[in-house]
Amino acid sequence: MSVDLGTGDGNAVLRAARAEPAWLHVGIDAVAEGMAEASGRAHRERLENALFVRAAAEALPPELAGCAARMTVVLPWSSLLRIVAAPDAEALAGIRRLCGPGALFRAVVAYSPERDARTWRELGLEPGVFDERSLAKGYASAGFTLLGVRDCTKQEFAALGTAWARRLARSPGRMAWVLTAIAA
After folding, report:
1. What's the sign of the alpha-carbon dihedral 51, 57, 61, 63?
2. CA separation for the pair 93, 153 (Å, rounded)
3. What are the Cα distances from residue 146, in Å, to 30, 103, 117, 123?
4. CA distance linking residue 135 with residue 76, whole number of Å
5. Measured between alpha carbons, how far is 169 from 1 in angstroms, rounded to an integer?
6. Does the pLDDT value for residue 85 go beyond 80?
7. What is the pLDDT of residue 2?
């Protein structure tokens, strides 16, 4: 099973379900309205391997515990950004519970100095800065092994294929990183 946490409009889940019919693809977001259109399309297209779940990152469904072989968090915002980038060990451990042993966790985080500095400070984050040592400790306390943080290339960013990524790609000075971890 592949989980897209903070899926937003759910289009990434639909693309993945079409590309990998042997996998179950689950989109989870706290806002059901954002996923409604994608859920309807999955039903109309008979994509039985696409599922959408309304849940906050801090209260993920226990029924999915241990099921994910892959988890993505693409361009998180608000509390999900804090969980992934700070990291919030308790909430990150809740995310880890969805992952089976050896599951790949990948997050893509973006930052614009002009637009995001205040929000990052409000979330308790150092604007646009990742301390890899602190991240590794936080992820380890949640049951992950952090493999690294690296710059996200413009090609990778463009390949995200989301409306939000397209909008952010036009922002001057925007930086993006890929955080990768493995569930222990």
Report:
1. positive
2. 29
3. 25, 12, 25, 21
4. 16
5. 29
6. yes
7. 98
Copy the structure tokens of residue 138. 């936080």
Backbone angles phi, psi at 22, to 5 degrees: -80, -10
Q: How many residues are present in the chain?
A: 184
Which of 64, 52, 56 is CA-nearest to residue 13? 52
Q: Considering all CA atoms of the chain, what is the largest pairwise distance in Å, rounded to the nearest integer?
A: 46
Place of tokens 């892959």: 70
Instruction: Determine the average pLDDT of the residues in 133-141.
Output: 94
* Averaged pLDDT for residues 69-82: 94
Helix (H) or strand (E) holding 136: helix 132-141
The DSSP letter of residue 128 is T
Indicate the pTM of the whole model.
Answer: 0.92
